[in-house]
Design brief:
Order of helices and strands: EEEEEEHEHHEEEHHHHEEHEE
CATH class of the largest domain: Alpha Beta
Helix content: 25-40%
Number of helices: 8
Bound molecules: (3R)-3-hydroxy-3-methyl-5-(phosphonooxy)pentanoic acid
Strand content: 15-25%
Largest sheet: 8 strands, mixed
Distance between the termini: 28 Å
Length: 339
């Protein structure tokens, strides 16, 4: 990441940096599409290796309001960002634009939207001179991308489903700071292509057509409870077991949808097999997979090199990214908008 070749003047723009996160208990399905309220709570790990920076400034009279790595983004993604910037600015607020850069592939199932929408939220609030609580910042980021609500915090984070119709109780809180429990997460990249099915379309389709979706909803509270207890006990084997089972249950809902939604490639399956073989050999490693073909593997930092070596040898794995538990949102330019 170059740190920001942007079309904005330094004195009229703000820059925030946020990290991606990977859900260990997944968000999958919405209870309200307009407010982007989840049907279930979720728990994630913020990743120090995958970061995005967003510069927000005034929208130019002509040209794009959303640049990614210096290139204009139009179509659905461009309109989604324009709508989000308008929401942050409020009805009578100034028109805003943003330029984002990420140090990892965007739109490939690596939670880039979490880091990007979280960073855009903080930079926009800073530019607007607003001050909000971190919970409020999380609830705003949620409206850009659900998983962005969790990137506000470092370490292990829970996004609460909430019950209020207006979404006021659906935001994330921190469970453990990133320095309270060292963890490693390796990402086996099996494809650099854009995702076949954007998460929000896949969720909508699965919720509407999969007979297994009801079972997914029913099992989630048990997973959340068990995951909170496993984190409190710093029990990595239990955290890994719950994460793997939760991930497979989420993907099962897609397999049962009409027509089915399958995110895996042969390399995805081979990487899952490799992780199971590592465990058979006594190495503590557990996989999770989001709405894409990449395989994310949780382990103790002492085992990270052995796990990375094993993943690199899997046919079809293009490269392996290494992350630890990362920090929450930070400002690089402009005043801090949270209190
Ligand atoms: O935040 P979204 O709309 O990109 O959805 C994320 C969905 C999953 O990555 C599959 C699960 C999760 O909790 O991050």
């Amino acid at each position: 990441m170059s740190g920001g070749v942007t079309p904005f003047d330094a004195d009229e723009s703000a820059i925030a940096v946020a990290h991606a996160n990977v859900a260990l208990v997944k968000y999958w399905g919405k209870r309200d599409e307009r407010l982007n309220l989840p049907a279930v709570g979720s728990i994630s790990l913020t990743l120090d290796g995958l970061r995005a920076s967003a510069t927000v400034g005034p929208r130019p009279d002509s040209g794009a309001c959303f640049l990614q790595d210096g290139r204009p983004v139009d179509g659905v993604a461009g309109r989604r960002m324009a709508g989000f910037l308008d929401l942050l600015a409020g009805g009578d607020g100034p028109k805003l634009a943003t330029s984002v850069e990420a140090n990892f592939p965007v739109g490939a199932g690596l939670a880039s939207s979490a880091a990007i929408f979280c960073a855009v939220t903080a930079a926009a609030l800073s530019l607007l001179g607003r001050h909000v609580s971190l919970a409020h910042l999380s609830a705003l980021a949620r409206q850009g991308s659900g998983s962005a609500s969790r990137s506000v915090y470092g370490g292990l984070v829970e996004w609460h489903r909430g019950v209020a119709d207006d979404g006021s109780d659906s935001y994330a809180t921190q469970i453990l700071r990133h320095d309270e429990w060292p963890l490693a997460l390796l990402v086996a990249i099996t494809s650099e292509d854009m995702k076949k099915h954007p998460s929000r379309d896949a969720m909508r389709h699965v919720a509407a057509t999969s007979p297994l979706y009801a079972g997914w909803l029913e099992a989630q509270d048990d997973d959340l409870r068990a995951m909170r207890a496993a984190i409190a006990a710093r029990d990595l084997a239990e955290v890994g077991r719950i994460a793997e089972e939760n991930c497979l249950r989420m993907h099962a809902t897609g397999l049962a949808a009409r027509p089915p939604v399958l995110f895996w490639t042969p390399a995805t399956v081979a990487a899952m097999d490799a992780v199971r073989a590592l465990r058979d050999d006594g190495v503590g490693a557990w996989f999770t997979i989001d709405a894409g073909p990449q395989v994310k593997v949780l382990c103790h930092p002492d085992d990270a090199e052995a796990v990375a070596r094993c993943l690199r040898s899997v046919p079809g794995v293009l490269r392996v990214l290494r992350s630890g538990s990362g920090p929450g949102i930070a400002m690089q330019r402009g005043s801090v908008p949270w209190t």
